[in-house]
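Input sequence (145 aa), recorded before submission:
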Amino acid sequence: METPAGLGDRMRTAAFAEKQAIHAFAWAAKRFQDVPQALRDDWIRLIPEEEKHYQLIVDRMQELGFSLTERPVSTRLWDSLEECQTGQEFCQRIAGAEERGRQAGVLLAKYLAKSDPATAAVFDEIVTDEVAHVKLADTYFGWTP
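Predicted structure, token format:
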């Protein structure tokens, strides 16, 4: 994180996680018929927020001169979500991923608060939204990270 390349890598990873979440929520809403329709509707309602997060990061990366495609990023999250056999398993797994991303975002925003307040503000906004995303697993299944 002490170098621009390190920040670019962290932002690239975060953008890709948001992109995976967009597709994962749409996929899960169609795939998992074993969960209440209300949960599938909630997943669909999260997509615009995930798209907003993705765009916030991408726009800030462009302002900083970072390329989104400079380095490959891991597909581990998507791969793990595809392995889910039930909607509950998906809900809990993505909630765990969202919580890990939220915690990382909190630390990143705190780290950047003085040196790069504009990027810190992007991550502050995202971590605030992610609380409700993680809460879905508790609401529907009594699961908390």
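Checked by second reader. The domain at 4-141 is CATH 1.20.1260.10 (Ferritin).
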